[in-house]
């Protein structure tokens, strides 16, 4: 059983990785958490690495930590571990924890260097692009693209 007041743990925890190496995590305060509750996020990228506290919190209008921005995140093969605990002068706050495969939360950049060469006489176009950069090691996983051509 969790120590702490029921309904005091954070809710709706989610993270996304974007721009190759930035990670943004957000959450909402527990429904029944006291107004003075402050939350703290710790994470561990793999079992070999040290657990680290967030260095750059996102705060709400009451200066309560409601998210974190991480820089220089690298995606490994293990699940990352996230723990958010809280403190209040009045009561014990339940913690929230979750293991996440970081590659599953990566938002890919769009393709780059897109070129379009059309031959109006032969009535065809050649469209080329470079695959977007991705941060994790499994670089040759299948990429599928959809081209939407609109005629004006």
Automatic annotation (TrEMBL):
Record's keyword annotation contains Lipid metabolism: no
GO terms assigned for molecular function: cytokine receptor activity
Pfam families in UniProt: IL6Ra-bind (PF09240)
Main location: membrane
Keyword Hydrolase: no
Record GO cellular component, one term: external side of plasma membrane
Membrane protein topology class: Single-pass type I membrane protein
UniProt cross-references to Gene3D superfamilies, sorted A to Z: Immunoglobulins
Keywords: Glycoprotein, Membrane, Receptor, Signal, Transmembrane, Transmembrane helix
SUPFAM superfamilies assigned to the protein according to its UniProt record, in alphabetical order: Fibronectin type III
Start and end residues of each Type I cytokine receptor cytokine-binding domain: 12-105
Subcellular localization(s) per the UniProt record: Membrane
Annotated PROSITE patterns: HEMATOPO_REC_S_F2
Protein name: CSF2R factor
Family matches, as InterPro entries: FN3_sf, Ig-like_fold, Short_hematopoietin_rcpt_2_CS, TypeI_recpt_CBD
């Amino acid at each position: 059983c969790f120590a702490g007041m029921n309904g005091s743990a954070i809710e709706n925890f989610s993270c996304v990785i974007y721009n190759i190496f930035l990670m943004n995590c957000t959450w909402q305060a527990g429904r029944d958490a006291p107004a003075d509750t402050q939350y703290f996020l710790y994470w561990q990228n793999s079992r070999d690495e040290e657990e680290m506290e967030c260095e750059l919190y996102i705060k709400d209008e009451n200066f309560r930590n409601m998210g974190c921005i991480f820089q220089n995140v690298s995606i490994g093969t293990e699940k990352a571990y996230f723990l958010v605990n809280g403190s209040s002068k009045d009561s014990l706050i339940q913690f929230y924890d979750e293991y996440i495969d970081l590659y599953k939360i990566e938002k890919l950049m769009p393709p780059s260097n897109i070129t379009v060469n059309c031959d109006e006489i032969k009535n065809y176009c050649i469209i080329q692009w470079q695959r977007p950069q991705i941060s994790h090691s499994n670089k040759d996983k299948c990429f599928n693209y959809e081209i939407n051509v609109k005629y004006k």
